[in-house]
Design a protein that fits this description.
By secondary structure, this protein is α/β, with parallel strands linked by helices. Helix content is 56%, strand content 12%.
Length: 215
């Protein structure tokens, strides 16, 4: 694990998890040149050690790694509570099969980049995700009230179950946490999420939360 400091944009820290050492160094060099601070991890287990000490602003993670793959890292991150659950998570993989993309999205990944890495696309993706999370954090300074949620119900026609999930999402909860708190299964939460996405004309959780917190 190596920490590469940046003198330009210190507040944005990116955790890069990649078991191919040369590729990991290339990604690190691109990110540092772009002004980010980078923490490297060569496998999923090392990444969990890092996450026990640091809360990065964004995670880049390979999917196919020995022992603990990228899906396992993402699930572990989501179980660490709201401070970690809202961190943008971008998968890196040589697997171009759409099923792998779907699997990652279902777990809560924000983006999916296919190797060989297009570094221009990588940087644009990171910038977009960091801007989005900044907007969410800024909006969260104004905590929604009960009347705000009543307005949401009228605006979008949320059912009581959907409203409870919406309230949890605006507080930073992820699917696993919501399921546990409400005493329902992850698949039931996913079912309600699909309905919420349709009613709000959104397609991603971060986009949904940003919309809800603006109202």
């Amino acid at each position: 694990m190596t920490f590469a400091p940046s003198s330009v944009r210190q507040r944005f820290v990116i955790l890069c998890i990649e078991d191919e050492a040369q590729l990991r160094r290339d990604i690190r060099d691109e990110l540092v040149e772009a002004g980010y601070a980078v923490i490297e991890a060569g496998n999923g287990r090392d990444a969990l050690d890092v996450l026990a000490q640091v809360t990065p602003d964004l995670v880049l993670c390979d999917i196919s790694m020995p022992d603990l793959n990228g899906y396992g890292v993402l699930e572990s991150l989501q179980e660490r509570g709201p401070d970690y659950a809202e961190i943008p998570f971008v998968f890196l993989s040589a697997l171009a099969d759409p099923r792998h993309i779907v699997d990652g999205k279902r777990l809560g990944a924000d983006d999916y980049l296919v190797k060989p890495i297009d570094y221009d696309l990588l940087l644009v993706t990171i910038e977009a995700r960091l801007r989005q999370i900044d907007r969410i954090r800024s909006a969260r300074t104004m905590e929604p009230t009960a009347s705000d949620f009543s307005t949401l119900t009228l605006s979008y026609g949320f059912t009581p179950a959907e409203l409870r999930i919406v309230q949890a999402l605006t507080q930073g909860a992820k699917m696993t946490q919501i399921a546990a708190d409400l005493g329902i299964s992850r698949s039931t939460v996913a079912f309600h999420m699909r309905n919420i996405f349709q009613k709000t004309d959104t397609g991603r959780q971060a986009e949904l939360v940003a919309l809800l917190l603006k109202r």
